[in-house]
Design a protein that fits this description.
8-stranded mixed sheet, alpha/beta, single chain
Length: 411
Amino acid sequence: MKIDCVGGGPASLYLAVLAKLQDPAHEITVHERHAAGTTYGWGVTYWPDLLRDLYAHDPESARLIEAGSVSWRGGFAYVGDRTTAHDGDPGHAIGRHRMRMILADRARSLGVRIEFGKEIGGRADLPDADLVVAGDGAHSGLRTEHAEQFGTRVGTGANRFIWLGTTRVLTAFTFAFVETGHGWIWCYAYGFSSEHSTCVVECSAATWEGLGFDRLGNEDCLRLLEKLFAGLLDGHPLLGRTDIESHAQWQAFPTVTNEAWSYGNLALIGDAAHTTHYSIGAGTTLALRDAMGLARALESAAGPARIPAALAAYERDRKQALLSVQSAARHSAQWYENLPRYMGLEPHQMFALLGQRHSPLLPHVPPQLYFHLDQAVGRLQALRWLKQRLGPRLARTLQSRRGAERSVPRS
């Protein structure tokens, strides 16, 4: 088959690797509109279960990704001048540029063609392809061209965030919460190499405007953030995108969903198909799992005539796998959008509820009460099972009651 992948991110590159491993006769081209060596974002996180799957699918690239990664366990939270620690699950991080280079080199070694600096304006630019894969991100041009057929919906988060780097090398996943005269501002930070860490800063829209970030240029924005997070940075600078000179890259998170993941022989993968809030650290993992799922479906296709059936199977399997992750991401985003609700707690209590932010029950129970209930339930296996079974049901009941109360007319 002739396969054209649009977008040179991890999803497209890994799909190209897996498809070539399955059938070296496939003619595969990855089209990246940016120049070679250009990438955006700093480090990306992933967890041990993904590493196991990478080894199962392609041990060669998995070995290089693991060797290029750093690891941590647990994390720290700085709340004002107070600190708390948590001994959590192990995690890994790698520079996004390094991961892309590993996958690109592996793809080339297998015979994949990679074209940099070439813009694919639409499906018509690839008339000879048996399969076109849109891996061109949350703002995918190929998906937008056929938005009606895909049933695309894009929602926008209430908070503002900016993705930065720093030369402060952090050895654990670290949170820092700073109270200002205009509300709370916070960051998620983690090391991804021996030289740099990622630092994602977030705040409400009101705080963003109150601090003047809607008016500040890039350099002034970085200098103000360095002052606000001076305790975390310990004298190290914050680093923005090198291609941006005039303005800071603040965003509102776009939640992308699609009713269909394929249209004809055009398939969506990664952020073009779906996005999950960055606060759960799963974006790259899900993109790579999409590549695994699509490659597995194509292997069963055994030729262009079977591509529609393969794409239907891919969509069905990946949508089912995403249900729990998307729910967790939605609740995580809402937790941060309602952050002041939890900031009156002691730091260790707040950090504990931060770890519980995926719970559908948490928004409906007073935070102090939830913390004590969770501590008690955590000690008893039977009650833990009860919480897992009844929590979602109780959350739906409370939500429906609130909706009914709001609908009752007042005299």
